[in-house]
Structure formats: C-alpha cells, structure tokens
Design goal:
The protein has about 190 residues and is an alpha/beta fold. Helices cover about 35% and strands about 20% of the residues. It is built from seven helices and seven strands, in the order E-H-E-H-E-H-H-E-H-E-H-E-E-H. The structure holds 5-O-phosphono-beta-D-ribofuranosylamine. The site of 5-O-phosphono-beta-D-ribofuranosylamine has 15 residues, from helix 1 and helix 7. 5-O-phosphono-beta-D-ribofuranosylamine binds next to helix 1 and helix 7.
C-alpha cells in the first residue's frame, strides 16, 4: 500500500511539484491532495497540471484545524510535507500526525529560524550576517516554529558578493536535490 502524503504550500510550489515528479513512478507514495492558505498561490496551477486536487483554507481555519483534519481523514492521509508553507500548523493536526509532518527550512537551523523567518527574509538575514555558508534543514514539525528534530541538513557556500536572490537560488538547488530523497529515506517502504 502506498503511503498517502498531503503537500502543504503557500507560494510557488516548485518543491511540491518536484516531489510529485520525483515519485511519479514510485509505488511507495501517493499525493492525493495539496493544501494552501492562499487562493492565488501558483501552487494551484501546478496542482492542476499534476492533476492533484488542491484546497485553500483561511488563516482562521488553520487556527482551529478542524476542517483541514476532516479533509486529511477523508483522504486517508498518512503524512504531511510542508513545502514552503508559511502558517503555523494547529496543535490538533500535530497531535493527529505525531512525527508524520516534516518541513523544509531554507537555512541551517537553529540559525535564521523562528517566527517571521521565511522566504526572502531568511536569505536577506544570511547575507546581512556575512555568513560564509547557508543551506537547507529538513525537520519534524512540532508546535514551535522551526524547532522540531532535525532530520537532514545540506550546505552551500555563500560568497561576500552573493545577493539574497543568489543565495535563494543556491538553496533551491539543494532543496530540489535532497527533499524528495529524504522523504523516500524516512517514509519509503513504511506501509509495505
Ligand atoms: C523554499 O525555499 C522553502 O524552503 C521555503 O519556501 C520556499 C518555497 O519555494 N520554506 P517553492 O514554493 O517550493 O517554490
């Protein structure tokens, strides 16, 4: 039986698409739905192309989590992957999916994490701090932003001349390479 993964994304959704494509021929995973908190996020276009139903929930709905939990239950979702998802995951969902929710953060946690540290802000902070390296952190999700146990990190060099956009590009390369692989490593074969 394949493991059913729900993808959560707030923006472009390039990681979500990359993950779905990576496992296109795999019998280990299915991706029955994509969930967003933004109706106009480009991830919905990608979902259409991938023929995966996508849903939007408001911030208020994410605060309670009830409707989302119902949808996850109806689709028999086993695990959740946050791929560029910006809202806090409600306690009810975290409790229903212990160690079954992972997130990718576009920096080397515990540095440059926490509330408000997302998207371009992370790369701006890395550039401003004069860091010589950045990277990705894939971690389990608990009720504190970016504080769940770290599963995997990969690094890239940051040059003094790198702009935040240039750092973001380097980080994206790492995300595309490693995020699907890490999902395969931690959850592949789990249900067979
Ligand atoms: C990624 O850099 C991810 O690490 C961060 O937000 C970005 C999302 O990009 N949390 P995309 O929506 O997958 O293109």
């Amino acid at each position: 039986m394949p493991l059913k993964i729900a993808l959560f994304a707030s923006g472009s959704g390039s990681n979500a698409e990359n993950i779905v494509n990576f496992f296109e021929k795999s019998t280990d995973f299915e991706f029955p739905l994509i969930i967003s908190n933004k109706q106009d996020a480009f991830v919905h276009e990608r979902a259409k192309k991938l023929q995966i139903p996508s849903f939007t929930f408001s911030k208020e709905e994410f605060l309670t989590g009830e409707k989302i939990l119902n949808l996850l239950n109806n689709h028999k979702i086993d695990c959740i992957v946050l791929a560029g998802f910006l809202l806090k995951i409600p306690e009810g969902i975290i409790e229903a999916y212990p160690n079954k929710i992972i997130n990718i953060h576009p920096a080397l946690l515990p540095k440059f994490g926490g509330k408000g540290m997302y998207g371009s802000r992370v790369h701006e902070a890395v550039a401003e701090a004069g860091e010589t390296e950045s990277g990705i952190t894939i971690h389990y999700v608990n009720s504190h932003y970016d504080e769940g146990n770290i599963i995997f990190q990969a690094k890239c060099p940051v040059l003094p001349t790198d702009t935040p956009d240039m750092i973001a590009d380097k980080v994206h390369v790492l995300e595309y390479e490693y995020f699907p692989k890490v999902i395969g490593e931690i959850w592949g074969n789990e249900k067979k």
